[in-house]
Amino acid sequence: MFSPNAEKTHHADEDAILFGYWDIRGLGQAIRHVLEYTGLQYDEHRYSFGEKFDGREHWLREKFTLGLDFPNLPYIKTGDVKLTQSFAILRFLARRTGLFPETEEGQQRVDLAEQQVNDIIWHCVRVCYNKNYNNHLKEEYIGQFLGTRCREFNDFLDERNFVAGDQLTYVDFIVWEMFDQHRTLWPEYEKMYAPFLRLGAYLQRIEALPKFARYIQSDNEMSSYGGPKMPAPKPLVG
């Protein structure tokens, strides 16, 4: 469930999780994926991001009234638990639902993939929100993404079904979301993962998870990458 226009919904169950985030994919989408896949009961409080990041008034009015130790978005509240920071939230949900790594090797691989994806996401953000964004910057970034990032993940996965091995964990939803955001941002590269057979098979494996497949094909799936749409690249001259 979610609440449009930042209106809070009524909890049918007092133990339901209240999840708050902007009305974009951004750092909240992997949390949505885990909530939907695990079937945890939750209500979503969406705050308007605005066309030019100018819709923050509602969030700013509430920010310091929610009892959060470090007020920020995303957040969750359930019982006595009040958390911010997307990775802290994901780990909490994973421990509750069996999506936390069960072995030391699995934990190491999950930790590594989590931080690697975070680096890629913020590199992408810096490119997309660069006021001088153009085709040259795009091509340079995509070249590095395909030539290095995708190749490294393809090798990292090797013959494993999931990041941790045979166990599905919360980080698989983080990894899938990052790669899906890239093909959503640049649909002209819709076959960008074709050369990376293991990576491509991995993404399809995640997409085929029945409960997850139903969610990403539903009307509730957020379609925008995040925030004000970046300007169309201007043709380079000369």
TrEMBL record:
Protein name listed in UniProt: glutathione transferase
GO molecular function, one term: glutathione transferase activity
First-tier enzyme category under EC: transferase
SUPFAM superfamilies for the chain: GST C-terminal domain-like (SSF47616), Thioredoxin-like (SSF52833)
GO biological process: glutathione metabolic process
Domain GST C-terminal: 103-232
The organism's place on the tree of life at top rank: Eukaryota
Pfam families recorded: GST_C_3, GST_N
Assembly description: Homodimer.
Native species: Tropilaelaps mercedesae
Family: Belongs to the GST superfamily. Pi family.
CDD domains, per database record: GST_N_Mu
PROSITE patterns with a match to the protein in the record: GST_CTER, GST_NTER
GST N-terminal domain mapped to chain residues: 15-101
Signal peptide span: none
Key words of the record: Transferase
